[in-house]
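Please, structure for the following, as tokens.
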Amino acid sequence: MVGWLRSAGLLLLLGLAVATPAMADSPGSEFKRVADASFTSPDRTVRVEQYAKDMGDEGLLFQFWTFDRARKHGALLNQGEGTDAAGYQAGFRFSPDSRWLVRMQKIGAGYHTLYLYKRTGDRFVPATQKPLGEAAWDYFYTQPAAEGVRRDPDDPYTLDHMQIGLIKGFDENYAWLGMKWPDSRYLVLGMSFDIQGEHPPFPWVEDWRCVYDLKTGTFSVPASFAEHNAKARKIPGKDQP
């Protein structure tokens, strides 16, 4: 297990010992709202707010809550994640139709993942069984780009500095990529990792891209991504700094 995971585990263990469970519809009193860290859905009916608890020398723990317009109903997004709190602040993007919510989450130094939520009434619930970022890496390992890449089946973050992010353009259905996709149907994801300290070295990727279909819950690589992804796959000796 990589070092940052051990550190994160210690942080969450300490948090478990002292954290007060969240109330049913609002953060606990020890969590304070983070200024300028809120996001509102395009239809203006749901708002994401971030709350932080100061753990002293151990840093901060974050909770992410959604509220309806009248603030009568609140729901914790990161329910069931360790102590129901994350070690880092997050970024959020709503789909243009306000039915989907993507959470862009740092999970360690140089490590980022994604969570996907779907709307049910005035709440958002997890749309995938595991974080969308982990599911995307599972898909990556089925692709030719992953040939020769080491993987530990017991550790979803086997590789150094594994990062997955949401490519800009979700708000406008990726018009800048020249796509003419249905409204709020697809997510374009960019994936990267490095091979620092690996002996022997193996191929790595920098902004390898795939698409997630929100309707079918499946990943794919459009033919139009082929040229970009060919350049994103780096070969030791040829592309190594």
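The mean pLDDT is 86. The first strand starts at residue 32 and ends at 33.
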